[in-house]
Amino acid sequence: MVRGKYPREYFKNPWIDKPIEEIYADLDAYSGEYWEDQPQYHDFIEVYVVLPPLLYDGVFIKGLYLTQAVDLVHSLHPELSEYFHSAAYTFWCSYPWSKQANAFCTVYPNPAREAWFRRTHPELADRVFIPVELSDFTHEYQMAPAPVAERDIDVICVSRMHDVKNLPIVAEALKIYRAKHGRIRMALLVGKPFDLNFTALDAHELGELRKMQEILIHLQDYIEIVPNVRHVQMPDWYSRAKVGVLGSLIEGKNRSLLEAMSCNTPVVCFQAFNQYARGPIPAIPEGAGLTAEFDAEALANTLHTVLTDPGEFKPRRRFLEHFGRINFLNRCLDSFSYYRERLPDYRAGANHMNPWLDLAIQDNYNLSLYDFLYDKNTTVTRAKTMKGIAELAATYLARFRRKQLPVG
């Protein structure tokens, strides 16, 4: 699955005393991509088609797919490169290690980091940089406010029990909050089976749980640990919560923060979250929540500010301004000179309203642009497992392989 070395010194230290170039190298020393020599993980690989190949009115436009295993997909289905651009993502704040990807998902726009990468990796300098991560592709109409009776959960935290998540600091913040401001409880969704005997937890996860127990003594008085929740049920959980919290200082672009915002739940994280990867980009859009200093009491006070004045925040509105599939599509197309120069009726920042795109997708796939973008027909928009990816590739190759495509 993963390669490289976790930069553990960044997990609990918001101030790293190194030149920024060394910090960039540390961030890139780890990747969550999947590789050909790891067959035990191959059925976890996913491919997302953001734009399909299009042949319409005498014009051929390549499509764009994203995956965390571009090199493997390319080795198995090399003909796809005739019809698609490929973009790699890493599930981390690193730049991808892929050698075959046409584009790298860089998580955030950061010109200084991009310039450093091109300078230090000249063999990859021609890659397209797209300032997104897979979490930016959140389906804003599925991950939307649910019709719940009330927000009966004080705090929601969707987090693995891994030391990168800093759950003991979150637990300490809950204890301080109760001492200073009154009763508070948190729902912790751990994303795996969980029972009273902790049989599903590995040694590392048990260590994190014990740290939380030592801080809170009676952990169950502060935290409800929730086992596996189906993704379709997540809007109900987010919509019941008054605030979402993340304890990490470093990781990828956290999915739970974006999903909570999309469900109109304000969020809180640390000011230093992904600071070296982000550069000048704020950790949370203004109006979607607040950030705190890396300190348990500061986190407790920030949670109290959000909980006592929720009307100050418009998280879903801010989410829709920055994230979701329409923004994702436009950010991808705007990043490629190929689309800027060749896509008919190209509209910077607004290709979701491009009439040629809508006509072409309707003509080729009997879907509108919106229907395609929002997965009305998943047989052409996404695939998982080697079998599913092979079927997706075969679908597209059968459609275009025998057609006479315009030169260029």
State the helicity in percent bands: 25-40%
**Rg on CA atoms, Å:** 22 Å
Question: Strand tally, please?
Answer: 16
- In whole angstroms, the N-to-C terminal distance is 36 Å
Please give the largest β-sheet: 6 strands, mixed
Question: Mind explaining what this structure looks like?
Answer:
The protein is an alpha/beta fold and 408 residues long. The chain folds into two domains: 213 residues, no CATH class; 169 residues, Glycogen Phosphorylase B (Rossmann fold), CATH 3.40.50. Helix content is 36%, strand content 15%. The protein contains 16 helices and 16 strands. The strands form four sheets. Strands 9-8-7-6-3-16 form a six-stranded mixed β-sheet. The chain has a six-stranded parallel β-sheet with strand order 12-11-10-13-14-15, with helices on both faces. Helix 8 links the parallel strand 13 and strand 14. Helix 4 packs parallel to helix 5. The longest helix has 16 residues. The model has no long low-confidence stretch (mean pLDDT 95).
